[in-house]
Amino acid sequence: MRFVLTLPKRAMLAAIRFYRRYISPGLPPSCRFSPTCSEYAMEAIEKYGAVKGGYLAVRRILKCHPFHKGGYDPVP
Length: 76
Hints:
The structure is a single chain. This protein is mostly helical. It has one domain (2-72). Helices cover 63% and strands 5% of the residues. The protein contains 3 helices and 2 strands. Strands 1-2 form a two-stranded parallel sheet. The longest helix has 22 residues, at 2-23. The chain is globular and about 45 Å long. The mean pLDDT is 93. Pfam families: YidD. It is found in: Cell membrane. This is Putative membrane protein insertion efficiency factor. It is a peripheral membrane protein.
């Protein structure tokens, strides 16, 4: 039963690890934040689970653009 309940969380973390391993190395560094958006997403999902952590990650990714100042933004 626990396997089923943690499946969304594990799937999201696997997708982020795939992105970090295979997609991100081919792109120029562009994250304006510390920790990076993918590090933030992994930490938020591990700490809060798929729903709240996913929400925090999406909110952070939407802030990562050239018009935002960036800076240090840890997971709450």
